[in-house]
Amino acid sequence: MRVLVINCGSSSVKYRVIDVGSGEALTSGAIERIGEGGTTHASAVAAILQDTAAFEPAAVGHRVVHGGERFHDATLIDDDVIDAIEACFPLAPLHNPANLAGIRIAREALPTLPHVAVFDTAFHVRMPRRAKHYAIDLELANRLGIRRYGFHGPSHAYVAGLAADFLQTDVSNLRLITLHLGNGASACAIELGSSIETSMGLTPLEGLVMGTRCGDLDAGAVLELVRQLGVDETDHLLNRQSGLAGLSGLGNDLRDIEAQAAEGNDRARLAITVYAHAVRRYIGAYAAVMGGVDAIVLTGGIGQNSVQMRRRILQQLDFLGLRLDEDRNQDAEVSAATPVVDISADRALVRALVVATNEELMTARQTARVVGGGTDVRSPGPVPIAISGRHAHLDRASMDALFGAGSELTVYRYLSQPGQFAARQTVSLIGPRGRIDKVRVLGPLRQAPQVEISRTDEFELGVDAPVRASGKTQGSAPITLEGPAGNLHLKEGLICAWRHIHMTTRDAEAYGVENGDQVEVAITGGDRDLTFGDVLIRVKDSYLLEMHIDTDEANAAELSQGDSSGDLLYSSPDVAVSASLRRKRAR
Ligand code: ADP
Predict the structure, then answer these.
(1) 181 and 299: one domain?
(2) Which among 57, 154, 266, 500 is most buried, taking Cβ atoms within 10 Å?
(3) How far is the CA of 283 from the centre of ligand 1 (A)?
(4) Same domain membership, residue 281 and residue 187
(5) Domain count, the chain
(6) How many A from CA of 329 to the centre of ligand 1?
(7) Residue 378 lies in a domain
């Protein structure tokens, strides 16, 4: 399949037509200086469509920087998706408006082709909550969506894949630190194939020193700058006049800065050392976060090309097991034909790899996958695990009875499955033997009420709940609920949730399973390996790949999420331990 990839930025539009099967670029180009001399996004995209029509692309892949909470994967664009991208404008004011302008124009011009949005943030969606949260007021942060999202996802994922191929293993066996060092720059800790931490945060301003962006900065310094300069000027300063450009006073091109440093320019030298220092700090931090590292991957214009910067970054890391080979570093040249070069010494325990990134190819592959013609069906890897605490689903009538007529659920926290949320509201469960308070209600409202508890909870309540798939409540156990507006006795609806895996049709194809199948799942990599039998496969295209077990099951495998007080629900997976599907059984 041929995919036209469009990266519509604020001042330039880059494009490429890629044959996904061969990975070859059939044509490519860039239109710069948008906004000057009558060049608009519309005229740029029109010119691109003219240049690429002869290659007859079957789909269009659009880079979109910020997908917010909503987008976990590349997504077919419709009007609803456009609204959601627009809703992320405040999170990426430099990028999303331009990205969306490109989408609108291209959709109008090519209405018969499928258009797909590929998000920078999607790769990082599974970061554990300890990495996602900033230590600020939790409720406020949740309300305003202020958390770490991470960027450069396609690049980090792409180079991690190439590194794994080069090391002749699966990415799910590796702990990688990927360093995308271009004009924008970010570091990513990739464990078992998943991003578990990355240096860019709410916006692409945090983390490493960049061409013109400041990277990490004391929030107190930001406040002081805002006091002195105002918001807009501070924004401009930190995004456009900082980083290498701000430190060196020589612009953002490292080649110029290195040339001046060689001439003795002290600001140029300062810029280089501050830059390398920041990268080294992240290497140390991420090695600690993962409890070790197998390979460090350098990519982006600087990572791929600057011998000197690579040396500064990777020097004296012997304590980590990394030893740079000076000659290999000097000679390293990556290209489409040789996309990976090892620059570490033979005996080094940690490999240092220079890898040519190709965000456009990754975008094309993901686009092809979404529209169904791709070769990049996800290879079955480990399945992330989420632990469900006890919880209740309500319908309209039970909501009225427990919280008052016409009352509505309010969002406490969005859950990993799209559209699902933990509500602020809680209820008490009352059984013949005892009660359990503060049981979280999950939204949105459903057709029928359903309460899910663990085996341990059964003893506390004195009830006997059958193991059931969600929604199969007919003939299940009775339970009394207590809410602020009154009690409600359910004749049925109490179940022990059948452990299950949510997945999309494509995941199901990749794993060779179908909706309703039961599989065995081996939990490995933790303190106590364990195999769960009778795990139910649930397939729906809106699902996010995730295995759900209850707190008892998690305890058995020592998959602790800390709190099992019932206030904790579907907590984001700590991917330190993952499950792999073992074999298919008859239905
Ligand atoms: P973008 O993030 O815009 O895609 P790139 O990945 O192309 O940017 O990286 C651009 C950066 O790479 C620039 O700072 C440029 O100076 C740097 N760069 C490119 N080639 C070299 C080189 N040979 N030596 C040092 N820096 C280089």
Answers:
(1) yes
(2) 154
(3) 20
(4) yes
(5) 4
(6) 17
(7) no
Residue ending a domain, among 339, 372, 405, is 372
Predicted local confidence at residue 298, as pLDDT: 98
Contact 172 CB / ligand 1 (< 6 Å): no
Which residue owns the Cα nearest ligand 1 atom 12? Answer: 301
Residues 429 and 546 in one domain: no
- Rounded to the nearest angstrom, the distance between the alpha carbon of 243 and the centre of ligand 1 is 14
* 277 and 342 together in one domain: yes
Q: Is 182 in the pocket of ligand 1 (CB under 6 A)?
A: yes
Decide if 490 contacts 514 (C-beta within 8 A). no
Q: Which residues of 95-131 are buried (b: 16+ CB within 10 A; e: fewer)?
A: bbbbbbbbbbbbbebbeebbbbbbbbbbbbbbbbeeb
CATH code assigned at 520? 2.40.40
CATH number at residue 215: 3.30.420.40
Residue at a domain's end among 77, 97, 119 = 119
Residues 552 and 512 occupy one common structural domain: yes
- In which band, very low, low, confident or very high, does the pLDDT at 375 lie, cut at 50, 70 and 90? very low
pLDDT tens-digit map of 41-71: 999 999 999 999 999 999 999 999 999 888 8
Q: Is the CB of 183 under 6 A from ligand 1?
A: yes
Residue 381 lies in a domain: no
CA-based nearest residue to 122, from 158, 75, 87, 73: 73
What pLDDT, on the 0 to 100 scale, is given for residue 487?
Answer: 95
| DSSP string for 100-126 | HHHHHHHHHH-TTS-EEEEESSGGGTT
Which residue from 306, 308, 313 has its CB within 8 A of the most atoms of ligand 1, so it is best to mutate?
A: 306
**Ligand 1 pocket member 179 (CB < 6 A):** no
Q: Does residue 340 sit in the same domain as residue 291?
A: yes
DSSP 302: H
Query: Quick check: is 164 in a domain?
Result: yes
Is 130 near ligand 1, meaning CB less than 6 Å away? no
Distance between Cα 232 and ligand 1 center (Å)? 28
Is the Cβ atom of 300 under 6 angstroms away from ligand 1? Answer: yes
From 158, 208, 254, mutation site for ligand 1 pocket: most ligand atoms within 8 A of C-beta: 254
**Pairing mode, strands 518-524 and 530-539:** antiparallel
186 and 212 assigned to the same domain: yes
Host domain of residue 302: 152-372
Q: What CA–CA distance (Å, rounded) separates 374 from 356?
A: 22
231: helix, strand or coil:
helix
Q: Which of 140-144, 389-393, 550-554 has the lowest mean pLDDT?
A: 550-554
Q: Does the CB atom of residue 142 touch ligand 1 within 6 A? A: no
* Any atom of ligand 1 within 6 Å of the Cβ of 184: yes
Tell me which residue has tokens 């799942």.
521
Q: Which protein residue's CA is at the shortest distance from atom 24 of ligand 1? A: 306
Out of 305, 310, 335, 363, mutate this one to test ligand 1's pocket (max ligand atoms within 8 Å of CB): namely 305
Q: Report the distance separating Cα 558 and Cα 490, nearest Å.
A: 33
Q: Are residues 364 and 425 in the same domain?
A: no
| Ligand 1 atom at minimum distance from 180 CA | 6
Does residue 382 surpass a pLDDT of 80? no
In a domain, 125, yes or no: no
Tell me the whole-structure pTM to 2 decimals: 0.70
